[in-house]
Amino acid sequence: MENIVTRIIEIDREANEKLAQSKQQQQQLLADARAEAQQQEEELEKRADNRISQVELYHEGEYRRISQELSEKFDAAVTALNKSFEERHEQIETEIFNRIVGE
Which residues form a coiled coil (predicted)? Predict the structure, then answer.
């Protein structure tokens, strides 16, 4: 009988040890999962920041290119208007004068 009681106590002790080990494993797995999640979050944030930087650089380049094109078109239009004015301003002035005077 004493042998049975001793065996029951031993089984109970082993069960408690296994339960403690299980809880420790659970806590370790949870800590590992949290660490991995944190690492993945940091990696995703880094990748997102890199992608944002790439997009910003692209759009900045596009902005400069378009701005340069518009500036060149504006300069060409001003040059054309100035040339037209230089070529025709005397004729235009004469036509305006004749309309006013009535000739």
Answer: 16-54
Give CA torsion, residues 27, 29, 34, 37, to 10 deg: -170
Q: Which two tokens stand for residue 42?
A: 């940091």
Question: What whole-number distance in Å separates Cα of residue 23 and Cα of residue 39?
Answer: 24
> Tokens 């920041």 correspond to what residue?
49
Burial 24-50 (b: 16+ CB within 10 A, else e): eeeeeeeeeeeeeeeeeeeeeeeeeee
pTM of the predicted model, to two decimals? 0.56
Give pLDDT tens digits for 36-79. 999 999 999 999 999 999 999 999 999 999 999 999 999 999 99
Write out the chain in H/E/C secondary structure.
CHHHHHHHHHHHHHHHHHHHHHHHHHHHHHHHHHHHHHHHHHHHHHHHHHHHHHHHHHHHHHHHHHHHHHHHHHHHHHHHHHHHHHHHHHHHHHHHHHHHHCC
